[in-house]
Design a protein that fits this description.
Layout (H helix, E strand, L loop, with lengths): L1 E5 L2 E3 L5 E8 L6 E8 L6 E7 L4 E3 L7 E6 L4 E6 L8 E11 L2 E6 L3 E5 L2
Parallel strand pairs: 2-11
Antiparallel strand pairs: 1-3, 3-8, 4-5, 4-9, 5-6, 7-8, 9-10, 9-11
Length: about 120
């Protein structure tokens, strides 16, 4: 399974960006798609994820500003980021994890830089 992320860039505080991630290869019926981010000098953290059934989870810092969605037919995941703040600046990674025969497998995209600055 390979992941290709797109959509990063430079945006002013208060602005919006959309990140998308396309997957190639087949996934098991149980999988979770999500986005993580890593700011300079910090650990990678979960931004949001979503199950096949549409159940979502968000980091407290992005609740109410970010919306994650997925297209199960296309195996794509998107995060709409609104009201961006300087502290949202980070490299964003898409992630998919699945369970096959009781074993968890994680797949990562290449990362896309989001810079929030005036």
């Amino acid at each position: 399974v390979q992941l290709q992320a797109s959509g990063g860039g430079l945006v002013q505080p208060g602005g919006s960006l959309r990140l998308s991630c396309a997957t190639s290869g087949s996934l098991s019926s149980f999988n979770v798609m999500g986005w993580y981010r890593q700011a300079p000098g910090k650990q990678r953290e979960l931004v949001a994820d979503i199950t096949v059934g549409g159940r979502t989870k968000y980091a407290e810092s992005v609740k109410g500003r970010f919306t994650i969605s997925r297209d199960n037919a296309k195996n794509t995941v998107t995060v709409e980021m609104n009201s961006l703040k300087s502290e949202d600046t980070a490299v964003y990674y898409c992630n998919v994890w699945e369970v096959r025969a009781g074993q968890r497998y994680d797949y990562w995209g290449q990362g896309t830089l989001v810079t929030v600055s005036s």
